[in-house]
Amino acid sequence: MGSLYSEYLNTSKVWEHYNYTKETLETQETPSRQAASALIILLCCTIVVENLLVLVAVARNSKFHSAMYLFLGNLAASDLLAGVAFIANTLLSGPFTLKLTPVQWFAREGSAFITLSASVFSLLAIAIERHVAIAKVKLYGSDKSCRMLLLIGASWLISLVLGGLPILGWNCLGRLEACSTVLPLYAKQYVLCVVTIFSAILLAIVVLYVRIYCVVRSSHNDLDGAGQQTLALLKTVTIVLGVFILCWLPAFSILLLDYACPVRTCPVLYKAHYFFAFATLNSLLNPVIYTWRSRDLRREVLRPLQCWRRAAGMQGRQDGTPGHPLLPVRSSSSLERGTPMPTSPTFLEGNTVV
């Protein structure tokens, strides 16, 4: 074991593993790769800003301090960190990869695995919370906030352990024949284990949502107000789950193919970065889904933009101009004209007490 960890600072190990698993090595940046990297970084910056707005909205408005919104905030936090991890991964990819030590490489890839794990466990927590709320099972007592925070903390702890297993020793250093082609320092067995766990969790989430749907349909056959809000909420979380599966299914498939293919026998594995780039769209779309489906959250997320518009309008009047033509000054109520601000979150929570 000591000899294994002694290789973690060996600067030639990464090159050795990439040379064994890859047909060609990227030793210099090309214009096309630079353009692709710039596009990915721009996309990730958008992800960070979007999810930061959601987190700020949830944190500063006491109406959103309920179970459902806290779990959505946790999912937004994992998406935000995923954007940061993807930026670091992009900047340290290409010819920079071969200059990394194994411990740096494990940190680069492990951060992405940790944020992915956190997203999956956040989706599971949301599904469990919805099932408990719909089934009207009292899980949370007076200390529900403490319990929710413990659950969120436990999900991150499990994610850290799962993403940190390779740096703790479950890797293929010294065993080139056991290495993944997509992730050349990871053992194929580890990659298969992670994909299997994620797939099982997603299957469990689907089962929970099917059960929730059956309970809602049987309890609200007349589709009264509460039933319609519950179905609307079910539609929202189902969209979030569906988008996650749609975005990550190609990446999971390429990792499963990686396990099945002997080294240098599946050329498609050398294009795996395109599949992972597509998967980053999940973190971009989640905040759009939240704000599109919840009027209250949309108001709160767009409030900084409204303040910016008012500030631009005031600056324009001070300069003797009517303001920027593309930034009209509107009242905060213009987002939902004629609709008063409700006293409680109207969509994601509905009339459900959690």
List the helices and strands and how they pair.
Layout: H1 2-6, H2 13-21, H3 31-60, H4 67-91, H5 102-135, H6 144-168, H7 188-219, H8 225-260, H9 272-279, H10 281-293, H11 295-318
What would the keywords be for this entry?
mainly alpha; Rhopdopsin 7-helix transmembrane proteins; single chain; globular; GPCR_Rhodpsn; transmembrane helix; 354 residues; 68% helix; Sphingosine 1-phosphate receptor 2; EDG5_rcpt; disordered C terminus
Give an overview in words.
The protein has helices at residues 2-6, 13-21, 31-60, 67-91, 102-135, 144-168, 188-219, 225-260, 272-279, 281-293, 295-318. It has 354 residues and is mostly helical. The chain has one domain (11-307): Rhopdopsin 7-helix transmembrane proteins. This is Sphingosine 1-phosphate receptor 2. Disulfide bonds join 172-179, 261-266. Residues 314-354 are annotated as: Disordered.
The share of residues in helices is 55-70%
Shape verdict: globular
Overall pLDDT? 81
Element-by-element helix/strand order: HHHHHHHHHHH
What percentage of amino acids are in beta strands?
under 5%
Total beta-strand segments: 0
